[in-house]
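Dear support,

I submitted the protein below through the web form. The confirmation email said the job was done, but the results page showed an empty box. After a refresh the structure appeared. I'm attaching both so you can tell me whether what I see now is the final result or a partial one.
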Amino acid sequence: MKKLFFLILCLILSKVYSQEISEKKIITEVNEVTVFIKDAQITRKKSVDLNQGETILKFINLSPFIDAKSIQVKANGNVTVLSVNHQQNYIDKLDKQKELLDFELKVREIEDKMKLEKTYLDILKEELAFLQENRNIGGKNQELSVLNLKDASNFYSTKLTSLKLKEIDIYKRLDLLNKSKIDLDNQIKTITSKRDFPNGEILVKIDSKRNTKADFELSYLVGNSGWFPSYDVRAKNVNEPIEIIYKANIKQDTKIDWNNVKLNLSSANPNISGVAPELKTYFLNYNTLPPTYNLISNEIKGKVFDEKQLPIPGVNVIVKGSTIGASTDFDGNYSITIPNNSSQLEFSFIGYESQTLPITSSNLNVYLKEDSQALEEVVVTGYGSRKRKSVSEVLEGKVAGLQIRGASSFQIPSEQTVKQTTVDFEIEIPYSIKSDNKSYSVDMVNYNLPAEYKYFCVPKIDKDAFLIANISDWEKYNLLEGEANIFFEDTYVGKTLLDIRYATDTLQISLGRDKNVSVKREKVKNFTTKQFIGSKKEETRVWTINVKNNKSQKINMLIFDQVPVSTLEEIKVDIFEISGAKHNIETGEIKWDFSIEPNENKKFELKYSVKYPKNRNLIIE
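What the results page shows now:
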């Protein structure tokens, strides 16, 4: 009976051990990165020696910001991928950068010195208190001689002076140490947040029919990374092509450095647009006002704080519905150029709740709240008691929403990934980007484009003349909307917006204001009249526009104005003079398109009258 029991026990134990699945830790390097406007796709490759049977490959030391649903595994070899799971390892946290560790060590050393100085200060204060409590050197019934009093006074003065001087020295040393600590803390903030992050891990369960060596390709999306385009736009004069330097501003704080990787840049489908003052239709009716124009800068500035009123560096600021982006600097400040009619900005940063706020002024400060659940979602997988999925379930894609690609004896099909982008750039040489939340500018391509230059002015809104470069066939250059530094006539003149979301066959780039073109719009008061004709009241308005070209070359120019548009039959608008301009009857827009020689003056006149019933009131500009 004992022999039978022992035999059964051996069979059970052998069965248990035969079912045990070996686990193998895999350390990989980042080989390729495709950076999107928001997030990035990481590709890692590794050859692994495998024994026959089932094995769990644990890919470790990965970013804590992996999107689990985006994980794809490709296996080339005589192996079958059974399942893929993602988890966070809070025990073995990611190693910090050596630079960060050095700074933190210096901070601890300074804190130790500060504790020592504070201890000396406490002892010194005790001595001072003891000295002051024992100033009485004679008792109530004891006579005090002049000599004793002099000796006591000298001792007290000398001792008190020495203690006070030591106190001053200690406060000086504490002040210097505190300043050094603040500098180090600020430097640490520029590298990364102080928060400890878990070690991202991906567990791949595979089945090998024999001992073999298989090549694995692991790819996934990771957050806290992205890029946005910017440009340098250079025009030497209005007779030469325009130069556009297309740049990518890449930033990542995935907690994993990208060292000598194959770098690709990709973007979502861009929309199209343009920047310059726009007229509103001047509808005329009783008790209505002419359109007003609040001329504010297209540049929005502000600061981003946390709940403790501390600035947050590295916050992503995006114009909603576009790829126009910026990020906060070390002090939490940001500056972003927005297109006309944009109404919202998006603010996002890992560990904080994202916010979408309306643009209410040219200065917009933002407070972000910490997201307590940002890194609390952990996927934990146990293989000892978990029921094994069948191969048919794997083939049907029922593995935790993850995508598995690979070649195996079961012929698991490859999945085609449809790219949702139209612009892709491949950096030809290996590139390194540290996980330090700093922006790295990469020049992608230079274009020399033929352009037609015209000056653009809406003197009713802004009397400055804007130089506009008109570029044809711009679609083939894969441009995205973004901020641009403008250089005209070898001088930096400011920033503008390269906004292609609403551009048609011609892309317009504003090259900024040119003070050498003078435009004045004035109301002629002598012709501004009001008279009564029968049951009607008639008011006349006359405006003159004077243009002078103070440049040394001939220029082409567009000037826009408007006349009111009547919405009632009893209100009649008559136009007497527009000096050869084109008149849009529906919108009331008046457009002068002309050229002007160097040092030449041109004058245009706009004259119209409005008739309406004399018993009604009408506000006319």
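Response: this is the final, complete result; the empty box was a page-load delay. The longest helix spans residues 146-191.
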